[in-house]
Amino acid sequence: KRKSTIEPVFGIIKSVMGFRQFFLRGLDAVKGEGDLVCIAFNLKRLCALAK
After folding, report:
1. Structural domain boundaries enclosing 10
2. Could you report the per-residue pLDDT of 11-47, keeping only the tens digit for each?
3. Which one of 3, 28, 44, 48 is most buried, by most CB atoms within 10 A?
């Protein structure tokens, strides 16, 4: 069940947003970068739903 709900999100982040790899090193930095990518995805989705 989890696979069907989360996989499209990663697919959109990789293909549409062009995020393929992390550019920072270290666990805290990667977590922060991942958070920024998720925030960007959510804002993009929110704008699309608001139209």
Report:
1. 2-50
2. 999 999 999 999 999 999 999 999 999 999 999 999 9
3. 44
